[in-house]
Amino acid sequence: MTVEPLRLTVNGRPALVPDVPGNERLLDTLRWRLGMKGTKEGCRTGDCGACTVLVDGESTLSCLTLAREVEGSSVTTVEVGDEDEVVARVRAAFSAAGALQCGYCTPGFVMAVAGLLRERGTSARREEILEALGGNLCRCTGYVAIVRAVDALRAEPK
Ligand code: FES
Ligand code: FES
């Protein structure tokens, strides 16, 4: 049986991915078929947030999402260019705050914050942002610099 190629828009560009079975995770499609290794695999069980991407603007755990479930959607990963102003701002804030050490968790944090800012803008309360990050784990930083990055984003003019 012929399987139709998977249609996605990834970081603003159309992607047509052949031979994607129904049980393939979006995480694997991104990393192994499209070569986008910025999205990380941590726990594989929805507990660490390392695999967070945006699907049609919403924070999504790509380890728990089947690629075929999001057929036709727009997927944004940490590799998106600076034309995505929200992601660019969040990346810059994490960098300025030194909010990473090994960096393994960072793409997930950046995309989770970007998802919330996209939804709520900088009017999002600090507690809301921190709550949205409750599913993202970091083994290195102690979170202080990550919270500093969040505070800097909220302090930026709208
Ligand atoms: S790898 Fe997806 S939540 Fe941990
Ligand atoms: S910076 Fe190493 S896990 Fe977060």
Describe this structure in words.
- The protein is built from 5 helices and 5 strands, in the order ββαβββαααα.
- It has helices spanning 26-33, 85-96, 106-120, 126-132, 144-155, and strands at 6-10, 13-17, 52-55, 58-61, 74-76.
- The model has no long low-confidence stretch (mean pLDDT 93).
- The protein has a 5-stranded mixed β-sheet, sandwiched between helices.
- Strand 3 (52-55) and strand 4 form a beta hairpin.
- Helices cover 34% and strands 13% of the residues.
- The chain is α+β, with helices and mostly antiparallel strands and 158 residues long.
- It folds into 2 domains: 6-76, Roll (Ubiquitin-like (UB roll)); 85-155, Orthogonal Bundle (DNA polymerase, domain 1), CATH 1.10.150.
Q: Return the CATH architecture of the largest domain.
A: Roll
Heterogens: FE2/S2 (inorganic) cluster
**Helix content, binned percent:** 25-40%
* Biggest β-sheet description: 5 strands, mixed
In short:
The protein folds into 2 domains: 71 residues, Ubiquitin-like (UB roll) (Roll); 71 residues, [2Fe-2S]-binding domain (DNA polymerase, domain 1, Orthogonal Bundle). It is 34% helix and 13% strand.
Features:
single chain; 158 residues; alpha+beta; Ubiquitin-like (UB roll); DNA polymerase, domain 1; 2 domains; five-stranded mixed β-sheet; 5 strands; 34% helix; 13% strand; globular; binds FE2/S2 (inorganic) cluster
